[in-house]
Each structure stands twice: as structure tokens, then as C-alpha cells.
Design a protein that fits this description.
Its EC number is 2.7.1.2. Pfam families: Glucokinase. This protein is about 35% helix and about 25% strand. The protein has 11 helices and 13 strands. It has helices spanning about 40-50, 85-90, 100-105, 170-180, 190-205, 215-225, 230-250, 270-275, 275-280, 290, 305-315, and strands at about 5-10, 15-20, 25-35, 55-65, 70-75, 80, 95-100, 115-120, 130-135, 140-145, 150-155, 260, 295-300.
């Protein structure tokens, strides 16, 4: 009978599961389910297991919430569960529950060339620290270090550090948002909601009514050059993201590269390539030459959470 190693990526709306080849890391039998259609996580995992030809003895779950205690309580869904109870209910030998951004981070060193695209210059140094940030619903941030040929994800809340403007217009935007919010974190600008915040602030500065209310419309109008404030929104977003990524590079000497994950940037990569992103990344005063030597990439893998959960599981199996 076949033995399957299974990984899961759990968000507030969907849960995706896949069987992973423990030797190659290849994902297969990928299925997506709506969380709302299942009373518990055990119910949906059992359904997935029933569709596999064989037994499952090891499972790694990447989930969007804290994972430090046995009791897991999702922050953006109603599911909660005991890790020990879930392991018993599923008949597993091993259950690993990791943060979703830990999984995304761990995917990075194992991406194929076609699963990432380099922005600007710089070179990757083998086994050196890596920085990752991911503008999406929020701004995920992480670092990776290699210890004895094993990649370790360093968790943190870097998205909530104070936003550092890199130009006069972004300083004006910061002032508008500070009047409204008080503390302005990087996530307030470098996310889907951040695009909306930047655009609304620019409209306020220009004393013009906002034509758009959602990030997708702002992005489309900016790329089509239909709206000056939408165009400027994309410029400030890319400049701010470059400056933020450059700070990540300096924080831990990320000579292994800095990677941009998340669902936003892959939608307009060509624009990012020609934007001020890389210039802002390198513009670090006395350390500009240092950052110029560090490579930056955008992650294109369609399922980095699933893939990274597989990396975690394979490292525990000691096959990589």
C-alpha cells in the first residue's frame, strides 16, 4: 500500500492540500476546499485522505495564525483545534503545524529558476541569510538562515515596523496617514489595503475626489495610465517596497538574496522591473554599494505555502 506525505496550506477562506514526493518535493493531487463548508479542520483533512490511494502517516499544516501552543485558534476563521487531538483523530505518526509565512519562507531556497524572476543586479551567495517579504492582504516578513545544511525560518512581525519614506511625495503621504492613524507601519502602505491608503492620501493632497476605492481598480488604472494619482500610487508603492526590502537586506546581511512573495507584485512584474524599486533598494547611503551586490527576486511559484510546508516536512524526514 502506498504511503503519502501530505501538506496543507490553511487560510481564512480556503484550505489547500497536496501529496508531496519526499525525495523530489514535487506536489501532486492538489485539492482546494472552502473552509466554511466543513465544521472542523479534521473533517476536511479526512475527506482529502479518503481520496488518496494509500495511507497517510505524516502531515504538515501551514496555517495563518500563531502556532506556539497545542491549541490552535485561527484569527480569520472559526476553526480551532488541539494539535495532539488532531494527530490522534487522523491516525498520524507525525503532525507538524507551522505558521504560513514560515512555509512561504522555506520555499525560497528551493525554487526553480522559472519559479522566480530577478529584478536588477546582484548575485546570490550560497547558504547566506535570505530575506523575504510578501505584500498581500497584509505584509508578511521573514528571514532564513542555514545551520548545518538545514534552513531555519526566523519569525517576526517586520511588517509592523514604522514605514520609512524614501522621497518627498511619500513623506507627504506618510504625514496624511499619520494624522489619520497615528503610527503608520510599513503594512499600511505595502499591501492591498496599502495601495488604497496611498491612493486616497494622494487624492487628499491633490484636493481631488477619489475615482477608485479598491486596490485592483487602482492598479489597473495606474498601469493603463488612466489616472495620474493611480500612476503615482504604483510609483510610491514600488519605491517604498524597494526601500523596505533594502532594509531587510541590511538587517541580517542577506547575501543569499531578498525575495518578494505575496499576491500583488507578480501581477505587474514588468512595471516593477522599470520602477524605482531597485534604486530604492540600493539607495542606502554609505551601504549603497553593499546592497547593490545583493540580488532581489519576485516569487512566481503558484503554491509557495504548500511547497514550503513540504520543505519543512522533508527536512524533518532528513531527505534534504
Amino acid at each position: 500500500m502506498n504511503t503519502h506525505y501530505v501538506v496543507a496550506d490553511v487560510g481564512g477562506t480556503n484550505i489547500r492540500l497536496a501529496s508531496i514526493d519526499e525525495k523530489t518535493g514535487e506536489l501532486s493531487q492538489i485539492k482546494k476546499y472552502l473552509c466554511a463548508e466543513f465544521p472542523t479542520i479534521a473533517d476536511v483533512v479526512k475527506e482529502y485522505f479518503s481520496e488518496l490511494d494509500g495511507l497517510v502517516k505524516q502531515l504538515c499544516i501551514a496555517i495563518a495564525c500563531p502556532v506556539d501552543d497545542d491549541l490552535i485558534e485561527m484569527t480569520n476563521h472559526t476553526w480551532s483545534f488541539s494539535q495532539q487531538a488532531l494527530k490522534k483523530a487522523l491516525g498520524l505518526d507525525k503532525l507538524y503545524v507551522i505558521n504560513d509565512y514560515t512555509a512561504i519562507s522555506l520555499a525560497v531556497p528551493f525554487l526553480a529558476d522559472e519559479e522566480k524572476v530577478q529584478i536588477g543586479g546582484g548575485e546570490v551567495k550560497d547558504k547566506k541569510p535570505i530575506g523575504i517579504c510578501g505584500p498581500g492582504t497584509g505584509l508578511g516578513v521573514g528571514h532564513l538562515i542555514n545551520i548545518n545544511d538545514k534552513w531555519i525560518s526566523l519569525d517576526g512581525e517586520g511588517g509592523h515596523t514604522s514605514f520609512a519614506p524614501t522621497g518627498d511625495t511619500s513623506r507627504q503621504v506618510l504625514n496624511v496617514l499619520a494624522e489619520k492613524m497615528g503610527h503608520v507601519s510599513a503594512e499600511r502602505l505595502l499591501s492591498g489595503q496599502g495601495l488604497e491608503n496611498i491612493y486616497q492620501a494622494l487624492c487628499s493632497i491633490a484636493q481631488q475626489p477619489a475615482k477608485f476605492s479598491v486596490a485592483a481598480d487602482i492598479t489597473r488604472a495606474g498601469l493603463a495610465q488612466e489616472c495620474q494619482q493611480a500612476q503615482l500610487t504604483l510609483e510610491i508603492f514600488c519605491e517604498g517596497l524597494g526601500g523596505f526590502a533594502g532594509n531587510l537586506a541590511l538587517n541580517l546581511a542577506c547575501e543569499g538574496g531578498v525575495y518578494i512573495a505575496g499576491g500583488i507584485v507578480p501581477r505587474f512584474i514588468d512595471y516593477v522591473k522599470n520602477s524605482s524599486f531597485r534604486g530604492a533598494f540600493e539607495s542606502k547611503g554609505r551601504f549603497s554599494a553593499y546592497n547593490a551586490g545583493i540580488a532581489t527576486f519576485v516569487v512566481l511559484h503558484p503554491d509557495p505555502g504548500l511547497f514550503g510546508a513540504g520543505v519543512y516536512l522533508r527536512q524533518e524526514l532528513k531527505v534534504i
